[in-house]
Amino acid sequence: MTIALQKLTKRFGALTAVDAIDLEIGDGEVLCLLGPSGCGKTTTLRMIAGLEWATSGDVLLAGKRVNDLAPRDRNVAMSFQFYALYPSLTVAENLAYPLYGEGLGAAQIRTKVEQVARVLQLGPIMERKPGELAEGEKQRVAVGRSIIREPNCFLFDEPLSRLDVQLREEMRGEIKEVLQGLRRATVIVTHDQLEALTMADRIAVMRAGVIEQVATPHDIFQKPENLFVAGFIGTPAMNLIPAELTGFAADNVASFAVEGGQSLTIEVDPAVARLAPGAKVTLGVRPRNLEVVHEDVPDGLSSVIDMIEPMGAETLAHLNDGRHDIRVVTDWRTPLVERDQVHVRFLPGSVHVFDADEKVVRA
Amino acid sequence: MAAASPHERMGSPRDAGGFFAWLMAPERRGPLLVAPAVIVLFVMNIFPLLWSFGLSFFNYRANRQDVPGFVGLRFYERVLNDPDVWDRFQTTAIIVGSSVILQLIVGFLLALMFAREFPLRRILLMLVLAPMMLSFVSVGVFFKLYYEPTFGLLSQFVSTFTGQPYVLLGTPMGAIMGIVVADAWMWSPFVMLLVLAGLVSVPKYLYEAAEIDRASWWRRFRTITFPYIKSLLLLAVLFRTIETFKLFDIVYIITEGGPGTATETIAVFTYRVAFQFFRTSQSSALAYIILFVVIVLTNLYLYAVKRREQEVA
Amino acid sequence: MARPREIGKAGWGWTLFSGLVSLVYFFPVLWIVLTAFKTRTDALAVPAKFFFTPTLQNFINVFYRSSITAGASQATEFPLYFFNSIFVSGTSVALAIVLGTLAAYAFSRYPLRGNDTYLFIILTTRMMPPIVVIIPIFLMFRLTGLSGTYWGIILLYTAFNIPFSIWLVKSFFDELNPEIEDAARMDGANERRVFFGVCLPQVLAGLAATFVFGLILTWNEFLFALLLTGVETRTVPVAMARTMGGEVGVDYGLLAAIVTLFLVPIFIVTYLLQNQLLRGVTFGTVKK
Ligand SMILES: Nc1ncnc2c1ncn2[C@@H]1O[C@H](COP(=O)(O)OP(=O)(O)OP(=O)(O)O)[C@@H](O)[C@H]1O
Ligand SMILES: [Mg+2]
Predict the structure, then answer these.
(1) A191 alpha carbon, closest ligand
(2) Could you read off the pLDDT tens digit of each residue along chain A, which spans 363 residues?
(3) Closest to A41 in 3D by CA, of A226, A201, A187, A220
(4) What does the domain layout of chain A look like in residue ranges?
(5) Cα separation of C178 and C181, whole Å?
(6) ipTM score here?
(7) Does the distance separating the beta carbons of C19 and B119 come in below 8 Å?
(8) Are A100 and B224 a contacting pair at CB < 8 A?
(9) CATH of domain A239-354
């Protein structure tokens, strides 16, 4: 069963929460909707479910337009951002709730509930009410309730957002396992990129109601289409350095003048050759693709170590030459001293060039 | 204010600050603030109660000068054995029961109607809430007019079908119905207000989840809506029972207890025993029995309030 | 097929339906208002008149009575009764709120041992049918000569309003954030300042609501007023009931005019206090 969104738009008065998005989710595919708070993720999900109707555009389930169907007629399963467990019912009754409408017998319902309880390890809490559950348990019940039926598609709104780090890791694994067993079109909303990168087949990055890029986790990380995706994905965030193209030293080796007078000569994507010298660009490089050296190099910039943050196996160094803040992640053994004058080298092939329209320049 | 001496000892009036400082000590602050209200309450409520408690053991008639004699529990005996008293209690129970049930049904339906958001909701809500703010006397006066056999609206309406004037208040059954309808009309908005508070406190996402889970209307009501209103329904029932138990003004004005004694509630009966027959002691004994019932009901009510507060927290 | 509607929302169709239901429910009141504008014959006309030439005569009659013999109009007693009702309820409710607020503050902030028991007893005195206390009070008033005086009825109504004020005002105090008071204490405020400077300003709206609810309750009170006011101190409900007693035929137009005069303030109050209404009618026991 597939989901397709065509020019889907939602306006709340003057505010356009979702702006003409196109998206297709294949059968059995897990798509993560990723984006900052308020970018329209929940609204998109609610339009797929039918809890919110589209201002314009279409929602297609299995190729059929369902805009005018009530949620109950769309046959979707959804877990809510804030669980939405029924407070007066026990965990077992909460799990069984979606089954009552299916015309199943009591025995069948019991079997299904037990099955889901086993998968999500809910056994010991089956007779408790939601008010007596810990956050992680509530979250598991919410997920359990959404997977107990066999609907057209699954929608999860921030299924892990309210868990602490450790629980989140555990649950991520559990959900991924469950999803692999289900093989249905699935949309997971999240603002946690790690969650998206680990669970998704594809990720759609949203900003202000617009989808910026849809790609596999690998491509989203390695080949960001634009400045927003580049800056949004990855921790610590990619360094974005405004520069001006000055010329080419060789094929695929370009020289840039960085604001402040320094120059930089590095290997770039062949497509950069399309740009004329003098073009304003932004250079993007991940902190892990930089190296701190003590001698001046042509493929690097000089700066001053401003602050050092040990992160265990690695060290995050903030460099600042008065104009740019550059983040570098090094092995923890690298000797670094605050206030030292150093150079950072760009590893070959690691730089992304974005043009004045914030689009990546790539072949 | 007297300046507190640094060596002030709390609790003794002889210390440096004198009586005033003693009075103002922190541990006396609560009682001191409560005192004025309690004094007024005592003078105007508690003391009269004690007095009438005393009276109920003596043979006293307010319209006579003779010295009352002590009779012990004789009036309680007489009241409890008086078939008239039981008859009035029964009448009261019937009126209270039917009125409260009617209020529940009407209030509940009105609440369902107003639980949604729709244009002009606040204005329409005001129309429905208005009866509750009227005085019993106005409601009584006008329902009496509506029930009037020759030019009353009810009679005119019925006579378009039967061709005859309709005397609602002429039969015991009709008179009780007339009272019940007037009282229920006035107080259904109260029940509505409570139920509405429950209905709007149901988080919207639960209804959305139920929609996704394809729950039927009835299941949704039973498992989601009802749990949010049941404690309020209980509160409404108890509160209205206590209040309707006092029913006096409407009866006094619409039927004066008639026909015969068909609509004579216990409050009206006590009033007549006290102020028409001047059997002061007997009415005091009666009042005490009423008080006992009200205390029990109030206790139940506060218990229900506590339970709901825990639920909401 | 119709577009799925958002849960909990309804449109003009529902407004139409609710409007009809509300109008039917409101009809008895509406009829009072219509009656107030009818002549005496129109008011009692058979069949009932929905369309008629409105007259203001009833409203004039509330204040002036045209006397056939003298030929000139003569003031009625109603202005006095209005004054009595306003004076008696206004004074007693104000008194009750002052005393009630002090007590409510104590019950909320300096709980005594057995706090709940006291509160229970206090509420019971409010829940008590007036008939229970009226007998001894009647005797008491007769003995002390308070019967028929303003002081008597004001004192009684003050007592009548105190339990209600305590419970309602306490519910407002209970809702305040005690951290603000503690912060004021840290800044050196004494208890008097904490009460007058910190707590009281925060519950002013609540006090106003309490005042208005008290006014309505007291204004509408009948039984005490019936037995304990005299010719000079009679209140409006008693006057209305007495107008009913007239054997010559009840002047419904006049009664309707009196009720109508008070519908306007009632509407304003209901509208302004819609959010406090629940709390008001349950004496502060149910907040939300
Ligand atoms: N019912 C509504 N009425 C008006 N504006 C709304 C409504 N629902 C959402 N919005 C607005 O639409 C925008 C998108 O909201 P949405 O809830 O989809 O964001 P989100 O991406 O899910 O954010 P979060 O990560 O915080 O959950 C926000 O600016 C929000 O304020
Ligand atoms: Mg969201």
Answers:
(1) 1
(2) 789 999 999 999 899 999 999 999 998 899 999 999 999 999 999 999 999 888 999 999 988 999 888 888 888 999 988 889 999 999 999 999 999 878 888 898 999 899 888 888 888 899 999 988 888 888 889 988 988 888 889 999 988 877 778 878 887 888 888 888 888 899 999 888 888 888 899 999 999 999 999 999 999 999 999 999 999 998 889 999 999 999 888 888 999 998 877 888 999 998 888 888 889 999 999 999 998 888 888 888 888 999 999 988 899 999 988 788 899 999 888 888 888 889 999 998 889 999 989 899 888
(3) A187
(4) 3-232, 239-354
(5) 5
(6) 0.86
(7) no
(8) no
(9) 2.40.50.140
Who's near B157: CB < 8 A, 6+ residues apart? none
Asked if residue B201 belongs to a domain, the reply is yes
Asked, for residue B143, whether it belongs to a domain, the answer is yes
Sign of CA dihedral C49, C53, C59, C64: negative
Q: Is the dihedral of CA B81, B84, B87, B92 positive or negative?
A: negative
Give contacts of A67 with chain C, Cβ < 8 Å: 3
Give the C-alpha separation, A82 to A190, whole Å.
13
pTM of the model: 0.82
Range of the domain at B255: 90-312
> Domains of chain C, with CATH numbers?
12-75 (no CATH), 78-281 (1.10.3720.10)
Q: Which of C3, C6, C7, C9 is best to mutate for the A interface (most A CBs within 10 A)?
A: C3
Q: Give the CATH number of domain A3-232.
A: 3.40.50.300
Chains that touch A (3 or more CB pairs under 8 A): B, C
From its phi and psi, is residue A80 left (phi > 0), alpha (psi between -120 and 50) or beta?
A: beta
Cα C115 to Cα C170: distance, rounded to the nearest angstrom: 12
Structural domain count of chain B: 1
| CB of residue A202 inside a 6 A radius of ligand 1 | no
Torsion-angle region of A192 (φ positive above 0: left; ψ -120 to 50: alpha; else: beta): beta
